[in-house]
Design brief:
mainly alpha
């Protein structure tokens, strides 16, 4: 039997990625209409912010891998300007929270929240499509 926390983590990662792509359909760096990747602002290894929607931004492949990961200082400064210093500092504090417990209950709560957010975004997108 598969580890339930591992299974939920994978499902949450997929949901999180889909949500970020719905929110940011184009690259937020170069503003081109290319397909986007869901990029974490603070690494997904920080479990407290791994599935936090505010911890994601849509970027195309080039901007994500060849700019954000190779110029982390420049990326951090751009992120601060893009999402605002207040949000950046909130995320940073949450990402560095050593008291956060990554367990099945937390993964289940995140799963419910992500499913609700995804459903809501899909409904909003449907309303925007002209007939």
């Amino acid at each position: 039997m598969k580890n339930p926390i591992k299974k939920l983590s994978k499902e949450n990662d997929i949901l999180w990625s889909k949500i970020i792509r719905l929110i940011y359909p184009i690259c937020q760096k170069c503003r081109k209409g290319k397909s986007t990747q869901a990029a974490h602002i603070f690494s997904r290894s920080n479990h407290a912010t791994r599935w936090e929607i505010k911890n994601g931004i849509g970027m195309d492949y080039y901007c994500h891998l060849y700019w954000a990961h190779r110029a982390p200082v420049e990326f951090t400064e751009w992120i601060k300007e893009t999402i605002g210093l207040r949000t950046f500092n909130w995320l940073k504090k949450k990402a560095n929270d050593k008291t956060y417990q990554y367990n099945l209950k937390e993964a289940e709560m995140a799963n419910k929240k992500l499913k609700d957010k995804y459903k809501k975004l899909c409904q909003q997108k449907e309303q925007l499509i002209p007939f």
